[in-house]
């Protein structure tokens, strides 16, 4: 066991070991808890393929059965849709584990649904999720020569989804869409609540307040 812990420190030098954190054997044996990956950024494109520019986030992985793993120097790859960690030698590893119930990252709760990670925005009668992904914003071109005068840029983008009995469906933040999922018996009360608190359907932070209240009714 001492040899395994020593190898773990050399290999990663980043995992926080607590009473329920990563046992060394789960990392250095073929359990596929982590898998080394390359930084797939294109040097010709400005920006980053990762959620955060700096690697100073700590993630907490909650697993079915009550286990909890804490991993510092973590990030989220917008390009690959996976959580990653960086070692002291700047190597990047993809985090892989079975039976994930949730991941806490930058004070946001993520869940693994239909082979992708989604941030949960509401829980109850109406369940809204947010998916982050990478898009490329094309640089400006010279009108005459058609040559690019600014570089393309990586941009963090996102889409919203609602979870129903049929799975996840893309969801637009607007009054019509939100009201569509309210029970008829609760619509009047909800409209009064929204008006009283000057909430906007199109604003994410306001929608979270709207749904938090609705899910208590």
Strand-helix topology:
Blueprint: H1 2-11, H2 25-28, E1 34-37, E2 45-46, E3 57-63, E4 68-77, E5 82-86, E6 92-95, E7 100-105, E8 108-113, E9 116-120, E10 127-137, E11 152-164, E12 167-170, H3 175-180, H4 184-196, H5 204-214
Parallel strand pairs: 2-11
Antiparallel strand pairs: 1-6, 3-4, 3-7, 4-5, 5-6, 7-8, 8-9, 9-10, 10-11, 11-12
What report would you give on this structure?
This protein is α+β, with helices and mostly antiparallel strands and 217 residues long. The chain folds into 2 domains: 2-121, no CATH class; 172-217, no CATH class. The protein is 20% helix and 35% strand. It has helices at residues 2-11, 25-28, 175-180, 184-196, 204-214, and strands at residues 34-37, 45-46, 57-63, 68-77, 82-86, 92-95, 100-105, 108-113, 116-120, 127-137, 152-164, 167-170. Strands 1, 2, 3, 4, 5, 6, 7, 8, 9, 10, 11 and 12 form a 12-stranded mixed beta sheet that branches. β7 (100-105) and β8 form a beta hairpin.
């Amino acid at each position: 066991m001492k040899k395994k812990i020593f190898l773990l420190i050399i290999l990663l030098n980043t995992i926080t070991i607590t009473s329920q954190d990563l046992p060394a054997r789960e990392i250095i044996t073929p359990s596929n808890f982590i898998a080394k990956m390359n930084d797939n950024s294109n040097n010709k494109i400005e920006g980053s393929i990762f959620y955060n520019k700096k690697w100073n986030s700590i993630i907490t992985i909650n697993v079915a059965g009550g286990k909890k793993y804490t991993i510092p120097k973590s990030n989220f790859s917008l390009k690959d849709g996976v959580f990653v960690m960086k070692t002291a030698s700047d190597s990047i590893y993809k985090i892989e584990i079975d039976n994930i119930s949730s991941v806490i990252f930058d004070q946001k709760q993520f869940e693994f649904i239909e082979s992708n990670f989604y941030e949960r925005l509401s829980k109850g009668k109406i369940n809204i999720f947010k998916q982050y992904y990478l898009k490329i914003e094309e640089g400006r071109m010279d009108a005459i020569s058609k040559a690019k005068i600014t570089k393309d840029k990586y941009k963090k983008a996102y889409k919203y989804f609602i979870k129903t009995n049929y799975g996840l469906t893309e969801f637009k933040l607007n009054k019509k869409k939100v009201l569509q999922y309210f029970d008829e018996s609760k619509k009047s009360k909800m409209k009064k609540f929204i008006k009283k608190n000057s909430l906007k359907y199109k604003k994410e932070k306001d929608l979270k307040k709207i749904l938090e209240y609705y899910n208590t009714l």
